[in-house]
Structure formats: structure tokens, C-alpha cells
């Protein structure tokens, strides 16, 4: 799962979210299910990791959109993005190592 997360992060750095999900989900979802990963956990992990990739260079598509909307220069935005990147990385780690956090509704059955 760490390797899959790394690949999805790299794909997220270079592609838009919808395109990345449409290309990567058919490749990685059957593999994840074969290893016993819950599809809900895999979906949450995939979207979160790709979105983290969209916030990081070289493309940083979300930062360019935020700069255009706010009128702020990109270097000024990058200073304020780091706490969000660290938090998103922590959330991805929690999703990876504590799968019950994303699949808790299934525990109620």
C-alpha cells in the first residue's frame, strides 16, 4: 500500500484528479482487493493521495488556481500551504496504518 500510495502521489503531481482516478483505479483496485484491502479504504486513500499530489510541484494545479482566484503571488501562497501538506501527509499515514478509521461504518453491522 505504501508503494501504491507513492505511485498515486507521483501521478497526482502530473495529472488532474479525474484523469488520474480514471486511469489508476482499474489498475490498482483489483490488486488491492486481491491483497484484502477494503475498497472503501482504497478509494479514500487514492483520492486523498492524488489530491496531495495536486498541491505539490512541479504542476501544483490547485496552487495555480488559488493564486488566480486570490490574486496572490504563488511564492506567497507556497509559504502558507506547508501546514496543509504536512497535515494531509499525516492523514494519509493514518489511513494507511489504521484502516478502521476509514471503514468504521462497517464495524456497526
Secondary structure elements and pairings:
Elements: H1 2-14, H2 17-34, H3 39-54, H4 61-70, H5 74-97, H6 104-107
Helix pairs in contact: 1-2, 1-3, 2-3, 3-5
Number of helices: 6
Give the helix proportion (percent range). Answer: over 70%
Strand content: under 5%
Q: What is the element string, with H for helices and E for strands?
A: HHHHHH
Output mean pLDDT. Answer: 90
Please describe what this structure looks like.
- With 109 residues, the chain is mainly α.
- Helix content is 78%, strand content 0%.
- The chain is globular and about 45 Å long.
- The two termini are 26 Å apart.
Q: What attributes does this structure have?
A:
109 residues, mainly alpha, 6 helices, globular
Q: What would a concise description of this structure say?
A:
The protein is mainly α.
Amino acid at each position: 500500500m505504501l508503494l501504491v500510495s507513492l505511485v498515486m502521489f507521483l501521478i497526482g503531481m502530473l495529472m488532474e484528479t479525474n484523469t488520474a482516478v480514471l486511469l489508476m483505479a482499474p489498475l490498482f483496485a483489483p490488486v488491492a482487493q486481491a491483497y484484502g484491502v477494503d475498497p472503501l479504504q482504497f478509494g479514500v486513500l487514492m483520492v486523498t493521495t492524488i489530491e496531495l499530489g495536486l498541491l505539490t510541484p512541479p504542476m501544483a494545479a490547485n496552487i495555480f488556481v488559488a493564486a488566480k482566484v486570490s490574486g496572490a503571488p504563488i511564492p506567497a501562497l507556497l509559504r502558507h500551504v506547508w501546514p496543509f501538506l504536512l497535515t494531509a501527509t499525516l492523514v494519509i499515514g493514518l489511513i494507511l496504518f489504521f484502516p478502521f478509521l476509514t471503514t468504521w461504518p462497517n464495524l456497526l453491522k
